[in-house]
């Protein structure tokens, strides 16, 4: 049994300051920066800079904001599938420079810094991928470089704070296909990211694109996971079971590094590009990799702070349930994905490595249905004067309910409540919810919806006097060359056709290997199960509030509809004269979003003409979309696992149309502070519903509040670009599964 021990949180600042050979080189001066307790997660993982972007071009699929006339704005074609203009890249870094540079301690940069290969007339090249990534590196150095120079007058590349990058699936060519390392891309990015990768980590990085950085030396590390070896769209590899696969090697490396960091007393943030999304029928990772990753999360939960990802463009979180670990996984044995039983296989939720609006809608609905089945805390059938609904009692140590205090004075109730509370805590893995782990997924900069940034706040109790010093990594030595037995295209970044053909040939070989494994009897491979926390170890920062616990985050967004100033200021403008409903230019019929990879955006009716004679954009700025610390809908006191599990249950129950059972109805003076909420939205939804003769806002006789948890979750997922009518259409009129039993639990 892994749960139930009574443990105290570690003392503030626990860890060691003992340097380790090869750790991040620090230039220590008397002018070190004080620790701020904040860091920036930038999904430049999903920056996708596009040098071919043209303002007032068409957002149609055959134009891709590169040609023809249409609604593409100066700073991007918001809600379309077009990539980011360089103007958006420049303004984003300018805003970071003016507003965040001196108030953050480090940056987590989760990949995809090259444009998509979405224009047949302008196919991507290897040199373009490299140059677009070099552009982003240059921007980071412009803002966070110290400007120091070496004796010979050359710039040293010294940074004021650590920046931790990772590979995105579009940072390579062809996209998605990342072959086992060392390969040409690990060698090239070792040079591109030379200012970011610690000297001691460079050999490991070249092996497979993985490394870690001690962002607060001796105390906090960020581990960069190469998720391209883990996600199911990479046909150049085969999961994490076979010891000859890159995924297996990656998971072994991760286990060894985390054990070493644990031994040294450090806490850890995990980061990557593609998140470990998984429902009962679909997934974004190979199942063998998901199993091993979740096992790592369970075994190292005493040191983990959290995990951060990008890629999916939608703002949300996901819960990993340790009960979904297979018995074989917990024993240290596993069949490869190609030879595993059909019952273990899930369809990919990604189309050519990307998530569409239709698949995102289905995915969020699946999450809502699953979360509604999470265990519920003990309830009281007593009714207060202000509420006729069942009240679920708070199970935290701080008793906030006067009813709970009063009822506990009744012996019979007290006895029953304690028994029910124990059963509930057993179901969630104890008072800290150690049956689960959490993955944060930030929305993107590329304006598939609106551009975003996210700033996390973390606990620095006891570390207030800690100083951060500039980071200078020694120039990399010549990278180890790939094997001379490899094709010549491995060494050439100009022969694109030759390289693509070589990759296709290797993928074909890998496919034949997989087919051969399927025909044979499944073989189980053994691996070493990570050591669990010691019995005396307290819960980690992800579970119990302590130093490095994530306290909250501020989500920023740039309202491009307003900034581009080409159309009406309100982002949710709808053409109410159109008989057919649509979302982002995709048809919406009977609650089902058109399953199309490309979307023209909300301004698709303006194709073929310029919005104005010439652009007159307003001042570019990011503004606060919401702040979890002051959020009156989600009401999260911190970002611990327990807080997220409670929130997930609220969202799921609200989706089922049972708001009274999971949160107190907001009074008139307790409305959401979400910037996305607009008083006009309800009225617009009513008008549109009346036009189509439908009574939106109701489902199974239950009215969904447009400021309730489920609507808020969906609305934030799409960065405020959907109005209540669209949410009702796409998320409430279909996808409702069987009635949920209170104690029933399913996969998340």
TrEMBL record:
<dbReference type="InterPro" id="IPR041805">
    <property type="entry name" value="ASMase/PPN1_MPP"/>
</dbReference>
<dbReference type="GO" id="GO:0000324">
    <property type="term" value="C:fungal-type vacuole"/>
</dbReference>
<feature type="compositionally biased region" description="Pro residues">
    <location>
        <begin position="530"/>
        <end position="541"/>
    </location>
</feature>
<keyword id="KW-1133">Transmembrane helix</keyword>
<dbReference type="GO" id="GO:0005774">
    <property type="term" value="C:vacuolar membrane"/>
</dbReference>
<dbReference type="InterPro" id="IPR012358">
    <property type="entry name" value="EndopolyPtase_N1"/>
</dbReference>
<keyword id="KW-0378">Hydrolase</keyword>
<keyword id="KW-0472">Membrane</keyword>
<dbReference type="InterPro" id="IPR004843">
    <property type="entry name" value="Calcineurin-like_PHP"/>
</dbReference>
<feature type="region of interest" description="Disordered">
    <location>
        <begin position="673"/>
        <end position="707"/>
    </location>
</feature>
<dbReference type="GO" id="GO:0004309">
    <property type="term" value="F:exopolyphosphatase activity"/>
</dbReference>
<keyword id="KW-0325">Glycoprotein</keyword>
<protein>
    <recommendedName>
        <fullName>Endopolyphosphatase</fullName>
        <ecNumber>3.6.1.10</ecNumber>
    </recommendedName>
</protein>
<feature type="domain" description="Calcineurin-like phosphoesterase">
    <location>
        <begin position="91"/>
        <end position="290"/>
    </location>
</feature>
<feature type="compositionally biased region" description="Basic residues">
    <location>
        <begin position="686"/>
        <end position="706"/>
    </location>
</feature>
<feature type="region of interest" description="Disordered">
    <location>
        <begin position="511"/>
        <end position="541"/>
    </location>
</feature>
<dbReference type="GO" id="GO:0008081">
    <property type="term" value="F:phosphoric diester hydrolase activity"/>
</dbReference>
<dbReference type="GO" id="GO:0000298">
    <property type="term" value="F:endopolyphosphatase activity"/>
</dbReference>
<keyword id="KW-0735">Signal-anchor</keyword>
<feature type="compositionally biased region" description="Acidic residues">
    <location>
        <begin position="673"/>
        <end position="682"/>
    </location>
</feature>
<keyword id="KW-0812">Transmembrane</keyword>
<dbReference type="InterPro" id="IPR029052">
    <property type="entry name" value="Metallo-depent_PP-like"/>
</dbReference>
<feature type="region of interest" description="Disordered">
    <location>
        <begin position="598"/>
        <end position="619"/>
    </location>
</feature>
<comment type="similarity">
    <text>Belongs to the endopolyphosphatase PPN1 family.</text>
</comment>
<feature type="region of interest" description="Disordered">
    <location>
        <begin position="1"/>
        <end position="21"/>
    </location>
</feature>
<dbReference type="GO" id="GO:0006798">
    <property type="term" value="P:polyphosphate catabolic process"/>
</dbReference>
<feature type="compositionally biased region" description="Low complexity">
    <location>
        <begin position="1"/>
        <end position="15"/>
    </location>
</feature>
<dbReference type="Pfam" id="PF00149">
    <property type="entry name" value="Metallophos"/>
</dbReference>
<keyword id="KW-0926">Vacuole</keyword>
<feature type="compositionally biased region" description="Basic residues">
    <location>
        <begin position="517"/>
        <end position="527"/>
    </location>
</feature>
<feature type="compositionally biased region" description="Basic residues">
    <location>
        <begin position="599"/>
        <end position="619"/>
    </location>
</feature>
